[in-house]
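hey all, quick one before standup. I had two proteins in the batch that finished overnight and I want to keep them in one place so we stop losing track of which output belongs to which input. First protein below, input sequence then structure tokens straight from the run.
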Amino acid sequence: MNPDLQRLWRGSLNLFLLFVRLHLWRIHPRRFLTDLKAIPIRKPIFLLGVQGGGLTLIARMLRRHPDVVSVTGNASYWAGPDEMQNVMGPILPPALTGLHHKIPPHPQYPERDWLYAIDELLPIYRKTSADATEEMARQFQRALRIALAIHARDASRARFVDKSQTFTVRLSLINALLREYEPHFVLITRNPYAMCLRAATRVHTFQRLPLTLEERLELAAQHWANSFRCALQDAEEVQYFTIMRFEDVLQEPEQQIRELCAFVHLEFSSEMLPAPGDRFPLGSTGSSRGDHKWYPLRLDVNRPYLDALTPRIVDIINSRVEELARRWRYTPEGP
């Protein structure tokens, strides 16, 4: 077959299977033939942070574990969508959605990527244990059980993994809704000087707004700082919580993932790590176009942004992030 036609065919098939995966939870027979209340929820794992912060890479490594399940698949489908807030938004309570489903209206910010935690929108999205209700817990637990019923190879061993970033400002609420099932939370940081400049110059949400670069940087810094402050505040009432620096994962992937597996009670396997020859399953978010979020690991992922910093940009970002940056040993020069 002509190589161009082969790529076109594979890309089209990938998009079709991706669509199927996104909506499988709606139509899969196991959702309707299984007694969902009998499906156990065992120590669900939530990766927290901000978009572009390294969550995708770490989630993919966890999802290659044979006992791990996400909202769209198991270890045989480890590179597809993995955010409840987007995939299962229609059946989640509004307090757990808000990026693509049930978005609270706002005249200036119709889109919410890298915006839901800015000063103006945070009061809408910020939820804590005080907001938890029995009905909300029932809806949330049912969504997890649907994913487990559909995708778990062995329901008695299955572990659910998710990386919905808005849960970062709702950690206390998530913990309250699942407290009896011992949820585990992993907060993933990445250099805020690189992250904020990356967001201000690359995130489509900002590019569509009539803002100057300085205004975009200010919003990005608000979003980054508010997200992590909320998570740290909520962590005080959470039993299972840890922090990982994305840069450390890039430098020492095996050691870091071993430590992560120990924390979340999974047996480490070297097959979880990126390796040459790995191929994305069809229907994945990256298989049709090639995806840099796997192998080889890019150790200099922050460098283009850090090299583009100016004193003025650093001042704008520092006004919001300096305290947390110092806490995690981040500087404008690098970790």
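OK second protein, same deal, sequence then tokens:
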Amino acid sequence: MTVTKNEERGYWEVLFYYKDYTGKRRQKHKRGFRTKKEAVVWAEQFMVQKSHNLDMTFQSFWELYRDDMSQRLRENTMRSKDYIVELKILPYFGEKKIAEITAADIRHWQNSIMKSGYAPTYLKTINNHLSAIFNYAVKYYDLPKNPCTRAGSMGKGKAEEMQFWTQDEFESFIECVKDKPIAYYAFLTMYWTGVRVGELLALTLSDFDDEKKTLSITKSYQRINGKDIITEPKTAKGKRVITLPEFLVAELEEYVGKLYGMMGNDRLFIVTKSYLEKEMIRGVKLSGVKKIRLHDLRHSHASLLISKLGAQPKLVADRLGHEKIQTTLATYSHLYPDQARDLADQLDNLIDGSD
């Protein structure tokens, strides 16, 4: 290893050789270090990473994990992971050697995070991100065990109570945003189809078929670092065709008629999630209905299908684009008890001969 200082520019640089995963000898040259010690530490950690030796810091292992997972996860998912790990996990574990982190260390970290006042579901999400990194180390780098498993989790996987609007609440709300057409038609579409906000914002004119009365969901939209990013739907089943009621077809035809010069590949709703969230807050204040999240319009649609129309789980799963019907049952199980009672009553009718 050779460590030298660039006197002209005032930084240190390091030059060394290492073997890659094929066993081939390669050269690495890295510049820009403030001190000689920083250059040496970085080079040592780099060589530990390449040797798959777990005698490395959590920070170094996170970089390995991130390089791999960034090729496999959606960009928006990876950004969420980056945010949580860099702000909630690395400050505590970054300099610790990953092989030396114990269940007690995890418990201490959990206790410090829980003092921050985060929602139970968010605490669960943070913990899951840490556990995923250790699971990766167990599976691919022969870490003996995941210390998160022994430490136990924190938070809860589900919110205490799902929030949604009844049809009456939605109708009160929607009347108060009619002055903003793009928000008005966007909220109508979300409530009456159950599409995710990313799916809504990715819709193009060609996705709306007024003759067949359908919306084709084939992509999702995110605004990342000031750029419009179009990705695949959240799940494989996310690609779907949603049938529309007649009144919604008429509403969307009216909306499209106001979009002069629109081409087939143009987005129907050229706004961001942030804009819709602000409009939702405005509509809530004006209408007086309870505050819910933008995503809860999706839950509101599911509630409408189940409680008002008696839709079976398979139909709800297909309409919402759930990968598994178990997801639908787990998410909306509280809406199905009445149907279970109705089914039992129908069985009674078979015995009584009244059906």
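Flagging for whoever picks this up: The two ends are 86 Å apart (CA to CA). The chain has a mean pLDDT of 86.
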